[in-house]
Amino acid sequence: MCSDVAIRVENLSKCYQIYDKPSDRLKQSLYPKVQHLLGREPRQYFKEFWALKNVSFEVKKGETVGIIGRNGSGKSTLLQMICGTLTPTSGSVQTFGRVAALLELGSGFNPEFTGRENVYLNAAILGLSKEEIDQKFDAIAAFADIGEHLEQPVKTYSSGMFVRLAFAVIAHVDADILIVDEALAVGDAFFTQKCMRFLREFMKTGTVLFVSHDTGAVVNLCTSAMLIRNGINLLFSTPKEVIEEYLVDLYESTQNVDGVLKNKISIIENNITETKVDYKDFRSDLIESSHLRNDIEIFKFNPDRASFGTGDAEITSTRILDKNQIPLSWIIGGEDVILEIQCIAHKKIYMPIIGFIFKDKLGQVIFADNTYLSYMHTPQTINKNEVFIAQFIFRLPILPSGEYTVSPAIAEGTQENHVQHHWVHDALLIKVHASQVCFGLLAIPMKEIRLITKSHL
Known about the structure:
Elements (H helix, E strand, L loop, with lengths): L4 E14 L3 H16 L9 E14 L3 E5 L6 H9 L6 E6 L3 E4 L12 H11 L4 H15 L14 H12 L6 E5 L7 H14 L4 E5 L3 H7 L2 E6 L2 E6 L1 H14 L13 E2 L16 H5 L6 E4 L8 E2 L4 E9 L8 E3 L3 E10 L6 E9 L4 E6 L1 H4 L10 E10 L6 E12 L4 E7 L3 E5 L25
Helix pairs in contact: 3-4, 3-5, 4-5
């Protein structure tokens, strides 16, 4: 047994028996025994539903693992079995250390008890003695910050108040393993930020399993990630790779994504609207003559990057141009650029949407946009074998040093309901060689910076 393992899951499966009507449940409990006594083959009165099938993985101490997948994929079932609140059909789960979990809203709470009483109940379930809870109660109440509602029955609580109190408890039980299942989605922004600060501090020493549909949170928080589909562990890898596969999985649920075809192209034009630069950073002359100049190298479009889509339209080129439409291989951050995405239609496209995502090396989205809002009142139609080009004109942000990628995509439909024809992961690589950015994901140009002193009389 490895001393550095926090969670070990081996061939874990969970099967539910689904009955069409209540009488079938009674028949299943009685008839097979009678048929067995008579030497007959027992009849089955239920259908099997496998919520989880032969899932295996290990989480080492100190790791933060994100679990992602569509609704009904088996994520919550997996977490419940790891926590011990659900019995596996087969396989095994081992945890090494105290586990604290925030699963379904209100789980572990008695609705008739007050918030105070539920703090004692929930903390006791998680292994704390009454004396330990007494010592931690004030800190739990301060973290939850629900005021006089702490003395009210929790059946009167809103979903946000439930989460506040539940998270406050698990944040103070000195757990070794923390399991969070989507619960933070119902909290307000200030409380969510408080929880994230706690999680980041906990991650320095503890182990976290984090289930979320928020791909940005998974990339930002997790050291590795797992994709589950139909109860099967499809992929356990880096957050970036798992989320790319998750996007494919999302679109597979509504459309065919077997790849793209290659064809010859012809050209059509697209309208371009020039944007005005209102001001530049007042320090730009100084910065551009120093080693802090935001020098950015742009690599060529790579059509062989991983991609998915129906193949009814295809991205053939993505590049960055200057204001004179000349392709760039180097640029300085803070300048106006044109991001151009060229596509070809392999069938008639009625409402094309071309967009892009600009990500850092971890897969965090820095910014993104598409053509939908600009053309939703004047929808375009693209004929088969026509080439169509989208150009996005904007001021390139001042970025920290490191590598970035652009992932272009072409879809058809509306923002809310569309078919993805071609999405290319990390098609364009951008490398920032130097930067003035001290903290954060990017810098904004300062119009003026003032330092004011005042004398006291």
